[in-house]
Amino acid sequence: MTPDEPGSLSEPGTNVDQEIREPKMYRVILHNDDYTTMDFVIEVLITVFHKPAADATRIMLDVHQRGKGVCGVYTYDIATTRVNRVHQLSRMREFPLKCSLEEA
To answer: How many domains does the chain have?
Structure first.
């Protein structure tokens, strides 16, 4: 279908080239601290990030041993929603668990 044909999305007489790009993706990262329990980190990974128990345990060990662990890669809106949810749960349980995002 050309831009001048009936049913076209662009105005007649205009030639608009639009590039459709995939959205930017962001890694959600949990950071280690000396107060948050390993059990709570696993709970967060299962409830917020929908990880199976084995994956949650592996990521928790990355957080504990390496200082941080990647929870997943998401679009910006989903990533920020999950970061906010982690912080909300952490405050409710009085843990200082830090969660951040970075461009993938």
So the answer is: 1
